[in-house]
Every structure is written in structure tokens, then in C-alpha cells.
Amino acid sequence: MKIAFVGKGGSGKTTLSSLFIRHLVASGAAVVAVDADINQHLAVALGLSEDEAAAIPAMGEHVAEIKAWLRGTNPRISATQSMVKTTPPGAGSRLLRLGGDDPIHSKLAVEAAGARLMVTGPFTDEDLGVACYHSKTGAVELYLNHLVDGPGEYVVVDCTAGAESFASGMFTRFDLTFLVAEPTRKGVAVYRQWTDYAADYDVALNVIGNKVHGPDDVAFLRDHVGDDLLCCLGQSGAVRGMEQGRPFGIDDLGERDRAALATLQAAVDGRVKDWPKFTRQAIEFHVKNARAWANAAIGEDLEAQVDADFVLGEAPLATRPS
Ligand SMILES: Nc1ncnc2c1ncn2[C@@H]1O[C@H](COP(=O)(O)OP(=O)(O)O)[C@@H](O)[C@H]1O
Ligand SMILES: [Mg+2]
Asked: Is the CB of 7 under 6 A from ligand 1?
């Protein structure tokens, strides 16, 4: 399953991503964690030191190699340089298994809290603008678009919900999106913005209340987001302790917060994989991006990259080139 955490900066995206990742690992699941947040804090939230975090190779600096590998022998992609972040897989493309022995996982992922962690590398607000070709999160989109995740496998992406993720279609790449919201007007404003963008697409979204203090906070969130509110976490002393440098394990969380994490997992596990939809949306956004900027940027008709007979999933994985 592909899972995104989005929300306002400071709402707790990274914290809740890291707690959910630890929860999944503790349940015995295979987990890939991806830090695609504008502030790269996931590694430290997963217990790595600042030095270890700084040493993780950045996906954003290896986009050309990622493209070259994923392109494989796909004849519809004329050259690695013609591959843009929305270029969908087709016959001949190399597909990825979660944590597989491909060069992307083996070169870019490090172990953190029992998960395999990859990071986009730091980026700025400017990277989130319309100059899409050089986008740092493009590497994550390519990764997700070529990843065949099986049952019991999870990829958790700590995302920046900037305009770019809507323009490129990144927001449609997930089986479930968790929008982290504090019980404040600003917290719920992001929810409205998100549901406006996502309204035309079939995107599954749940709100997770964070730093919730009591029933009034829950009622506030419920008033604004209705049934999209899945569960709430409180202000956690154990999380604060971790910020202060104390060792942290998932067992240090309070009963209620642990129950909330189990609720998150149950919501994810309740999703049914829809590979045709995943493939259709990838193509839709590729065509959109081709017409908007990519055809002009590359000097080629990139709509010709679409392999209309191809559907991502277990079937093409079985026949992939070595
Ligand atoms: N449930 C929580 N309990 C205690 N502190 C929290 C909790 N959630 C977030 N925080 C703290 O709030 C701050 C912002 O959280 P962070 O996860 O970095 O937000 P984001 O990734 O959305 O910018 C951090 O200092 C973090 O430790
Ligand atoms: Mg963050």
C-alpha cells in the first residue's frame, strides 16, 4: 500500500509518519519510508543522528540514474533524457518491488527504525513551482509509478502538499492519504484546500487530528471535516522526550495514541488495490504535463510514451526484463 502524510507545516506530518512507520515495523510489515517533505526531518524522527541523516544519498541528486534504470528497454521512451517525472511505465520498463534488490533501493535506501528510508534531499519553495523538469520530488513520483507493492508491504511518504503535487498528479499516487490537522482554523483550512483540489479525482483521504487535548478539540475537528476524521492523537510526552534526546520506542506511546496508530493501519488495510485506476491517473497526468510544459521542454511528443495496453500490477512484474 502507498500512503501519504500531508498537512500544514508544523502540524505533525513527520512525527506521525515516523510513528506510523514504527508501528508498521513493529507489526512485522515490510516498510519503505520516503522523506519528500520540504524540511527533511524524517530520518531524525526515525532515530538517526543528524550526521547519519546528512549522509543519506538524496534521490533528487540521482534522478538521471533512476530514470535510466526504470526506462529499461521501453521502446516508447526515446532516451533517458526524454523521461520526465510523469512518464508512465510500459512494456520494457523496469518495475520495482518494495525493498527489492534493484539499484534504487540498494544505492539510495538506508535502514532506520527497521524500515528502509529514502530521502529526496533538501528543496525550497522554488522547487515546488511550475519548473517541473528539475523537480526534486519527481524522483519520488517515478518511484511510486514503477512500484508494485504487494500485500503486507507499505511505502509511507512524508509529503509537502504544495501546488506541485497537484499539478503533477502526485496526490493521486496513494492508496490512502492522511491529512494531519491540528484542531485550529489554520489546521482545517488545509483540509478544505485539499478537498477542493482532490474533488475531481477519486482520492481517498482521512484526517488525523494531532495535538488534540480533549473532547472540545475533537468536536471542533468533527464540525469541520465530518466523517473524514479518522482518529486523533494527543500531545505526547514521549514524542517531546524524543525531541529532547531521550531514547524512544513505539511502546513508550500512551494507550490512546497506540490505538490511533492501529486505526490508521486498519484504514490502510481496508483499501482495495485498484491498479487500473492507478495506471489511468498516471497517464492522465502525464498527458496533462506533456501538453502543459514537457513536450516543449523536451522537444518531443511525450504523449507517445503512453503504452495504452499496459497496466501496472503483479502481471507485468512477472514478465519484466532482468
Ligand atoms: N503528537 C505530538 N506530541 C508531541 N509533540 C508533537 C506531536 N506531533 C508533533 N509534535 C511536535 O511538533 C513539532 C512539529 O512536528 P513535525 O512532525 O515536525 O511537523 P511537520 O512535519 O508537519 O512540519 C515537532 O517539534 C514535533 O515534535
Ligand atoms: Mg516535516
From this structure: yes
Distance of CA 307 to the CA centre of its chain: 24
Mutate which of 8, 15, 248 for ligand 1? The one with the most ligand atoms within 8 Å of its CB, which is 15
How far does the centroid of ligand 2 lie from the alpha carbon of residue 316, in Å? 35
Is any ligand 1 atom within 6 A of the Cβ of residue 273?
no
DSSP state of 291: I
Q: Is the dihedral of CA 258, 187, 278, 39 positive or negative?
A: negative
Whole-angstrom distance, CA of residue 249 vs CA of residue 258? 12
Measured from the CB, is residue 18 less than 6 Å from ligand 1? Answer: no
According to the 3-state scheme, what is the secondary structure of 122-182?
CCCHHHHCCCHHHCCCHHHHHHHHCEECCCCEEEEEEECCCHHHHHHCHHHCCCEEEEEEC
For the CA of 37, the closest atom of ligand 1 is: 21
Nearest-atom number in ligand 1 for the CA of 210 is 1
Alpha-carbon Rg for the chain, nearest whole angstrom, is 19
**Ligand 1 atom nearest residue 8's Cα:** 22
- Could you give all domains of the chain from N- to C-terminal order, each with its CATH number? 2-318 (3.40.50.300)
pLDDT tens, residue order, the chain (322 aa): 999 999 988 999 999 999 999 999 999 999 999 999 888 999 999 999 999 999 999 999 999 999 999 999 999 999 999 999 999 999 999 999 998 999 999 999 999 999 999 999 876 666 655 445 557 788 999 999 999 999 999 999 999 765 666 777 889 999 999 999 999 999 899 898 888 888 888 899 999 999 999 999 999 999 999 999 999 999 999 999 998 989 899 999 999 999 999 999 999 999 999 999 999 999 999 999 999 999 999 999 999 999 999 999 998 887 655 5
Ligand 1 touching residue 233 (CB < 6 A): yes
